């Protein structure tokens, strides 16, 4: 074996024969961290994106955070209901490209494919940036190396993915379940402290005034803008419908169960963290600001104190670094890349420069 071959085996493991591919299939509990971490990890910064808009409307606008989160949950279940039907209608995998092409025509299939391709690239950028920000919140001396940290994470995640669905799933399970558990602890602790009357003062210096005094249609646009910013919480909800074949038999049934479980957890985390951010008056900081912290790190500090070991752990996991940063969202899902230059894997299709977007499995 050549030196290059040995390096490939060390990094990516031995190639898996097609006859053994069924051993790579995932049960529900292992599939959840593989396919659902996109959506789950988005809750760590969805509230921050909403607050970036609401703070321009002054203190009175901050009370909209929780209602907007509830509206996002209603939208989430609408989307989930659609994908639930898609899973059973396309048990071989129903990506947006395939569904649009078969039901609306090739043009709309290409439109959906192009939008997904751009979206997946942006998803990776947002994910690793959020993870790097959480790392920096705990270790401020690393702030000058934020871009290097984020770039290195992409290479690390791609390497893990290429080792196969099952192996990468085991790696991703720990940060994903840690993330969910710690956010639940954060939310529960916030509820207990709120019941005892504890709160935090509002820092008026971080409030804007550009949207104050808006009425009528302009105020409606302001609220809609905040809602749209929070739609980042729905990132990756299509992943399960894309990868039905990665599940153990019965594939469609297990995929549907995973989808419902993901939506349930996402609903609790989205509303719970948004309520805590609103109640404890947490506002976003500018990245260039000294002592920068994402909102989840600020919330952990308000609940546990800066010197608490739980603050450090919460900043890393609840702040999205272990889940979004290490799990890499967008560029993986059970060891298959969303955009694969080999449409013959599924069916002949020369469109979109021989890319079958979000509809080919490795």
Which descriptors apply to this entry?
362 residues; Amino acid/polyamine transporter I; two-stranded antiparallel ribbon; disordered C terminus; single chain; 2 strands; mainly alpha
Q: How is this structure best described in words?
A:
The chain has one domain: Up-down Bundle (Amino acid/polyamine transporter I), CATH 1.20.1740. It is built from 15 helices and two strands. The protein has helices at residues 3-12, 28-35, 37-54, 65-89, 96-104, 106-138, 146-161, 165-195, 216-230, 239-242, 251-279, 295-304, 309-317, 321-327, 351-354, and strands at residues 339-340, 356-357. Helix 6 (106-138) crosses helix 7 (146-161). 45% of the residues are buried. Mean pLDDT is 76; it is low at 318-322, 324-348 and 352-362.
């Amino acid at each position: 074996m050549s030196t290059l071959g040995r390096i490939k085996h060390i990094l990516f493991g031995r190639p898996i024969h097609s006859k053994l591919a069924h051993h790579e299939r995932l049960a529900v509990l292992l599939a959840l961290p593989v396919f659902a971490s996109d959506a789950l990890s988005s809750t760590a910064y969805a509230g921050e994106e909403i607050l970036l808009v609401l703070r321009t409307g002054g203190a009175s606008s901050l009370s909209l955070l929780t209602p907007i989160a509830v509206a996002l949950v209603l939208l989430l279940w609408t989307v989930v209901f659609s994908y639930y039907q898609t899973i059973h209608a396309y048990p071989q995998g129903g990506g947006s490209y395939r569904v649009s092409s078969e039901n609306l025509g090739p043009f709309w299939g290409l439109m959906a494919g192009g939008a997904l391709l751009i979206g997946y690239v942006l998803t990776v950028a947002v994910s690793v940036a959020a993870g790097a920000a959480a790392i920096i919140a705990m270790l401020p001396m690393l702030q000058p190396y934020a871009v290097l940290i984020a770039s290195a994470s992409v290479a690390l995640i791609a390497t893990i993915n290429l080792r196969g669905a099952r192996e990468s799933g085991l790696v991703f399970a720990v940060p994903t379940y840690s993330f969910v558990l710690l956010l639940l602890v954060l939310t529960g602790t916030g509820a207990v402290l709120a019941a005892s009357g504890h709160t935090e003062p509002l820092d008026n210096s971080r409030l804007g005034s550009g949207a104050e005094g808006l009425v009528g249609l302009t105020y409606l646009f302001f609220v809609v803008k905040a809602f749209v910013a929070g739609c980042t919480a729905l990132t990756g909800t299509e992943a399960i419908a894309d990868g039905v074949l990665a599940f153990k038999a019965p594939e469609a049934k297990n995929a549907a169960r995973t989808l419902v479980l993901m939506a349930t957890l996402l609903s609790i985390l989205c509303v719970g963290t948004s309520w805590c951010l609103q109640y404890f008056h947490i506002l976003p900081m500018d990245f260039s600001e000294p002592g920068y912290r994402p909102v989840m790190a600020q919330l952990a500090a308000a609940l546990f104190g800066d010197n608490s070991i739980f603050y450090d752990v919460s900043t890393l996991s609840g702040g999205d670094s272990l889940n979004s940063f290490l799990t890499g969202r967008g560029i993986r899902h059970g060891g298959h890349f969303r955009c694969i230059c080999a449409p013959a894997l599924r069916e002949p299709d020369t469109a979109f420069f021989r890319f079958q977007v979000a509809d080919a499995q490795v």
